[in-house]
Specification:
It is a single chain. By secondary structure, this protein is mainly alpha-helical. It is built from two helices and no strands. The radius of gyration is 12 Å and the shape is globular.
């Protein structure tokens, strides 16, 4: 897999870590997700990772 571009909204998340987590997320799903739900889960995952890296407590 080659990353050719990475959204700036995810700038605080290392692209390699994000790609591996995305693969895990997709592998864990027994059913297909529609694009909107997949995007929601991907952004939620990225936000959590960015918050943890920034040292913020999650609610």
């Amino acid at each position: 897999m080659a990353v050719q571009a990475f959204p700036t909204i995810l700038a605080k998340v290392p692209p390699a870590d994000f790609a591996l987590d995305l693969i895990d997320l997709l592998a864990d799903k027994a059913v297909e997700l529609d694009a909107e739900r997949l995007l929601d889960q991907v952004l939620s995952m990225a936000a959590c990772k960015a918050a943890i890296k920034a040292g913020q407590k999650l609610s």
